[in-house]
Amino acid sequence: MEIPNLRECSGSQLQITSSGFQFLLHTPHAQLWELLLQYLHMAEERQMDLVEVLSFLFMLSTMELGRDYSTESLSETQKAMLEDLRDYGLIWQRKASSRRFSPTRLATTLTSSLPPLPTATGEGTNGQAQGFIILETNYKVYAYTSSFMMR
């Protein structure tokens, strides 16, 4: 699956576009939903039942993290989705042919407005950030911190 306008071909090289760079700056949660919206368009082109696709995505978000679930009760459309969802990191299966799957943390936070994993804030005693990051237009990243580990 390819999201349109994120990269362009310049001769034999692929280059990221402005839209692609903006996509990378989104939160992982927003990136995931952009991928899932594109997946819905792709599912429609593949003539999959969109109600079943959405139903399965929302069902994943309510499942218990790390628990095994059987594929026996899934519809054919939902079974066809398993490989894609595994590629996106939403489910884990021991083998591609496995009859069981487990939702990942990413899947269980699909409908949550909270980030999937806690983030380090770098807050000091006064509640202000203790450092900063510079991202240059050539994609070089410089991080400056006052951490005792970096002294």
Write a structural description:
- The structure is a single chain.
- The protein is of the alpha+beta class.
- Helix content is 36%, strand content 17%.
- It has helices at residues 18-25, 28-45, 50-62, 76-87, 105-108; strands at 7-10, 13-16, 69-70, 91-92, 100-103, 131-135, 141-145.
- Strand 4 (91-92) and strand 5 form a beta hairpin.
- The termini are far apart.
- Mean pLDDT is 81; it is low at 119-125.
Which consecutive residue ranges, at least 5 long each, have pLDDT under 50? 119-125
Strand content: 15-25%
Strand order of the largest sheet: 3-5-4
Q: What is the end-to-end distance?
A: 44 Å
List the domain count as a whole number: 1
Please trace the helix and strand order, writing H or E for each element: EEHHHEHEEHEE
Total number of strands = 7
Subcellular location: Nucleus
Pfam families: Tfb2
Function: Component of the general transcription and DNA repair factor IIH (TFIIH) core complex which is involved in general and transcription-coupled nucleotide excision repair (NER) of damaged DNA.
Protein name: RNA polymerase II transcription factor B subunit 2
